[in-house]
């Protein structure tokens, strides 16, 4: 599985590195991408493979990164995932499988999995006219069955208990976001999770958008940058802050204790907030340049 996420520039090197490592082949940083692509093409044509290219935003030539397109006689498989049907056709997909939104029961299960025991108790209270249950139901419905929205909003309301708190949350997240083609429509809802952060957390979250959209972020390096920008004062505080962003689903685990990553849509939310004036104070330059 290779996360492409090429809303901007296609990161050919990252894709080639993933394939190279999986095949157990030697890696040479000095080698040109074109030469590496030809080498990988030859290596993969001699094998039976299954490759999943995840989150493709724009079409690209598979040969440019070294992935051969399986022909009708090949037992190898290439699977693409994209929010755009046009991109699938441009990538010469032979068949399409539409992934449906979560049904109500599955959406509720995912949403509840992010809540605290106290919040679940308030929702499940048997008292008549349980408005907390009504507000929670409205929030789940407005998420349109989108897993990312359900996870992020679930974390944001995880500690709510009183009817007034749930009412305010419902009002803040009531806009519908079912249209995946209009990604900015999701921002109003996901921004609720951002608004729940403390000022320092907001600044550190926005700072994460300065990293490239692909790949992972080293935790220690991220904390050092935050300290250099005087957003925080010590390493322990930085790692606690990373954990708080992970708990809020604004950062994601990479399956490693030393790295994190930011979901493509969450990163675009952060960039949108920064462009609208939510600039993190003290951030003067991009650490990647």
Automatic annotation (TrEMBL):
Keywords: Plant defense, Repeat. Residues 210-269 form the Disease resistance protein winged helix domain. The keyword Repeat applies. Pfam families: NB-ARC, WHD_DRP. InterPro entries: Apaf_helical, Disease_R_plants, NB-ARC, P-loop_NTPase, WH-like_DNA-bd_sf, WHD_DRP. The keyword Iron-sulfur does not apply. Residues 2-115 form the NB-ARC domain. One of its GO terms (molecular function) is ADP binding. PANTHER family: DISEASE RESISTANCE GENE ANALOG PIC17, DISEASE RESISTANCE PROTEIN RP. This is Uncharacterized protein.
């Amino acid at each position: 599985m290779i996360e492409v996420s090429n809303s901007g520039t296609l990161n050919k090197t990252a894709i080639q590195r993933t394939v190279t490592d999986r095949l157990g082949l030697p890696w040479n940083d000095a080698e040109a991408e074109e030469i590496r692509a030809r080498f990988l093409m030859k290596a993969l044509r001699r094998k039976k493979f299954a490759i999943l290219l995840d989150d493709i935003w724009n079409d690209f030539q598979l040969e440019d990164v070294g992935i051969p397109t399986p022909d009708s006689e090949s037992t190898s498989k290439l699977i693409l995932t994209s929010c755009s049907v046009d991109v699938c056709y441009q990538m010469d997909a032979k068949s399409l499988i539409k992934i449906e939104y979560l049904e109500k029961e599955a959406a509720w299960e995912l949403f509840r999995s992010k809540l605290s025991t106290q919040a679940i108790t308030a929702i499940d209270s048997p008292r008549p006219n349980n408005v907390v249950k009504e507000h929670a139901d409205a929030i789940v419905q407005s998420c349109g069955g989108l897993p990312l929205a359900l996870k992020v909003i679930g974390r944001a309301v995880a500690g709510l208990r009183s009817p007034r708190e749930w009412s305010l949350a419902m009002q803040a997240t009531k806009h519908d976001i079912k249209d995946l083609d209009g990604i900015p429509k999701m921002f109003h809802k996901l921004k609720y999770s951002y608004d729940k952060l403390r000022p320092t957390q907001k600044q550190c979250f926005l700072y994460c958008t300065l990293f490239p959209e692909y790949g992972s972020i080293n935790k220690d390096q991220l904390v050092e940058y935050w300290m250099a920008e005087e957003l925080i004062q010590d390493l322990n505080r930085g790692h606690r802050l990373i954990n708080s962003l992970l708990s809020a689903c604004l950062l994601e685990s990479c399956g490693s204790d030393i790295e994190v990553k930011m979901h493509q849509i969450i990163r675009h939310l952060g960039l949108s907030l920064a462009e609208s004036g939510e600039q993190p104070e003290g951030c003067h330059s991009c650490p990647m340049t």
